[in-house]
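tool=predict chain=A
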Amino acid sequence: MDITEAQLKMQDAVAHLKTELAQIRTGRANSALVSDIVCDAYDSKLMVKELANISTPEPTVILISPWDKSIITNVVGGITKANIGLNAVIDGDLIRIVIPPLTAERREQFIKQMHATLEQYRVQVRQIRHEARESLKDQQDSGAISEDEEKRLEGELQKLHDEYVEAIEVAGKAKEEQLREI
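tool=predict ok
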């Protein structure tokens, strides 16, 4: 594993973290809350974003407009099965989800969940750094790179690690602010 490969893996980890954080409910409507929910439709499992248009016309409302109106109950069933604490209601050809305001207790639960998720991604970035260091050590032992080159690359690797851990912290702080916002 070289520095570029480690950087790409760290980038992927941070991008995946941001996707996961977007799915944590903040009391504000966000299409990411329902877009990846799996529904049974057409004898297969499909995500809501593959079956419908999702919009947020108001800060506390998510509207889902299935392209095929015959699967509207399948989409509602998928949202109910996902058990994300949201009630989907059929409103003509649309599915309407009203986001209830979060209680202080529920906000704290979401913040704890978010901190656990952040720690998982910090560990993942550290693991990537560890694997890259092992690779550098192996290259140095085999004579592919010099000891000085190994030290220089380890320094670069540490800078990358610090940069991506900081990106994780920034994403976490932003999400925590959203969760604490009333």
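The beta strands are 38-41, 44-47, 52-58, 61-66, 88-91, 94-98. The longest helix spans residues 104-142.
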